[in-house]
Amino acid sequence: MKNAKLQKWSGKLIVRVVLLLFTAVVLLPIIWTFYTSFKTSSEFLTNAWALPAGLHWDNYKNALEKGNMLAYFWNSAYITLIALVFVVFLAVPTAYVTSRFPFRFSKGLSILFMAGLFVSQNYIVIPIFLSLNKIQNFLNQYVMFQHLEITNNLTVLALIYAVCELPFTIYLLTGFFRTIPHDYEDAAQIDGCGYFGTLFRIIVPMAKPAMITVIMFNFMSFWNEYIMATTILKEQKWTLPVGLANLMEQQKFATDWGAMFAGMVLVMIPTMILYSLVQNKLTEGISMGGLKG
């Protein structure tokens, strides 16, 4: 009996030690980045791991003004917001139909969406860019469309992001919608609700954990995306990750290490704040949606 308790206690101890090690591996670089963003370049070069002598807020000022990070921040915020609206608007009705209404070719459609999970947008950047160029050249033939930019357009990029994330979003929402009993829909129809009324008044509120999950995952994907943005956008419309990469190259040779780390913090803060606010619902949405689907 004592040996069993000792083994159980030892197992828990090992698991906790391993989790603490993983936590340290994740947290230490983040903490180091935060306090390094307040250092001067001389402090960083003297001892990269030491705490700063003071809070040098000029690093953030240089990153926002000289590195143009404020403009890039708003570009990223605009693209992320528009892309989230697009993907939710397209994915919610699609997932509802595929999960609640069996019809001809519905299984084939589901398989098609599943296949989209294995297509990374990084693999199709060049075809997308070439297609946009062809559309741009076609529009340039008409005077009324000559001022319309396709390859350097934040809204177009947001739409591309949304379409690329549709398979995963539909997959997760479909799995969650299937766990909701049909009794709620039957009661709503008795009260006179149509399909859209049932979806937005009954199903979507009940699927709140799944909605938060897809919004969180898509937010991180849109906010941190680099390859598509640097291919399609020009400098004045760069997003935050592209601007950060440019800032890192500039400040590395200008020896302004504080501004470089301040730019990194500006990229991390929105994701960390959002994750800390929705982490409980995020875990619930994953367990009830993807695993049961």
Task: Give an account of the 3D structure.
By secondary structure, this protein is mainly alpha-helical. It has a single domain, classed as MetI-like (MetI-like fold), CATH 1.10.3720.10. The protein has 13 helices and no strands. Helix 7 packs antiparallel against helix 10 and helix 10 runs antiparallel to helix 13. The longest helix is centred in the N-terminal third of the chain and has 35 residues. It is flat and about 70 Å long. The two termini are 41 Å apart. The C terminus is likely disordered.
Total domain units: 1
Helix fraction, binned, reads over 70%
Strand fraction band?
under 5%
Number of helices: 13
Attribute tags:
MetI-like fold, mainly alpha, 0% strand, flat
Provide a brief overview of the structure.
The chain has helices spanning 2-36, 41-46, 58-65, 69-100, 106-116, 125-139, 154-177, 183-190, 195-206, 208-224, 227-232, 240-254, 257-288. With 293 residues, the chain is mainly α.
List the helices and strands and how they pair.
Layout: H1 2-36, H2 41-46, H3 58-65, H4 69-100, H5 106-116, H6 125-139, H7 154-177, H8 183-190, H9 195-206, H10 208-224, H11 227-232, H12 240-254, H13 257-288
Helix pairs in contact: 3-13, 4-7, 4-10, 4-12, 5-7, 7-10, 8-9, 10-13, 12-13
